[in-house]
């Protein structure tokens, strides 16, 4: 079974702050209402669009989603 998007993105925490993926992961970690169990693109993108911040951006989400979908 594929892990949730949330768990996948957590693997980027602690990296170089200049990386948008790292900033997204850190912001997502502190967002208590983030849909942590979801692997559904529509649910996640709707959440990001509704609660976007300087670091929790749809651009970073789209890039991370491509990486998430490409994992084995």
From TrEMBL:
Residue stretches making up the YozE SAM-like domain: 4-69
Coiled coil: none
A Pfam family: YozE_SAM_like
Family recorded in the similarity comment: Belongs to the UPF0346 family.
Name this protein carries in UniProt: UPF0346 protein SAMN02787113_00672
